[in-house]
Amino acid sequence: MKKRFLWPLALFIVLVGFLAAGLKRDPSLVPSPLIGKPAPAFDLPRLSGDARFSPKDMSGQVWIFNVWASWCVACREEHPVLVALAREKIVPIVGLNYKDQPADANLWLQRHGDPYGLSALDADGRVGIDYGVYGVPETYVIDKAGVIRFKNIGPVTREVLDEQIRPLLKELQR
Amino acid sequence: MKRFLLAAMTAWCLAASSAGAREAAALAEDPVVEQRLIRISEDIRCLVCQNESLAGSRADLANDLRREIRKLIREGKSDAEITAFLVSRYGDFVLYRPPVKPLTWVLWFGPFLLMLGGVVFLMSSLRRRQRTHAASVAPVLSDDERRRAEALLDATEPRS
Hints:
The complex is a heterodimer of chains A (174) and B (160). Chain A has 174 residues and is of the alpha/beta class. Chain A is 38% helix and 18% strand. Chain A has one domain: Glutaredoxin (3-Layer(aba) Sandwich), CATH 3.40.30. Chain A has helices spanning 7-24, 73-88, 102-112, 126-130, 158-173; strands spanning 44-45, 52-53, 63-68, 93-98, 118-122, 138-142, 148-153. Chain A is elongated. The mean pLDDT of chain A is 92. Among the domains of chain B are: 30-99, Orthogonal Bundle (Helicase, Ruva Protein, domain 3); 100-139. Helices cover 69% and strands 0% of the residues of chain B. Chain B has six helices and no strands. Chain B is rod-shaped. Chain A binds chain B through residues 27-28, 30-34, 99, 124-126, 128-132, 134-135, and chain B through 47-48, 50, 60-61, 64-65, 68, 87-93.
């Protein structure tokens, strides 16, 4: 009979549990429906040189696709991580220069280092929309068959790189 | 001087109003398209400012997405096709009215389940209370007990 009075307390504890879990989650991180789907095709000019770039050019290799811009503050945060990763030469990193001015983009790369084998120019953000970009920087891992296997929204930190991207690269490159 | 000021102000007002009129005209370039754009985008969440609809958001991405939707409308796409275009890129999260599917069953039917549970609890506790109440007001006497009680009452009556 006494147990009945514990019911509200139990419900309250469950509610607190849900709220606590909710507090720890970042509502701005929206799971991408593109994971497991082929990377959307596009054909864009490159930041340097006259050649163009299409995701087809990367077929047969695992690659990282990083959306960046010179106006993006958080990009500066992740940039050293990408530069260090590029030095290891374990995976090609392709940039998507998103809604930026080429002159600003080049200056930014000169100042902070260029981890990208190449950057495609998405001046009007049209390709960004196809990739579901809503907050720069965003980073995709694309496998040999051209399928998106991973997406990171926001800066790539050392933790994200070591705990999520590296193991995935190892698995995909096998 | 006064007259000059007045003239300048009038000119400025005229210029401003005509500029405003031009801007309004550009927005209403194709009122049918704009109306459909607003109707579709009111039900879409802007991903940058998540509590704003795509129709109301001034975020850069919202501008771009409205531009895309306008283009799709001009291409003759249906509302469902346009919504599918956005969902395939940004996920169900962009919909203010999430679709009914196994993953969202709890979301759609959970409140009704909770209400049903509440009603069941209320009914059972009311019934229980009624039973205990009935038991306390109507103690059951057997015929034998009743007769003895009446006999006792009769016996004490004359004295009072």
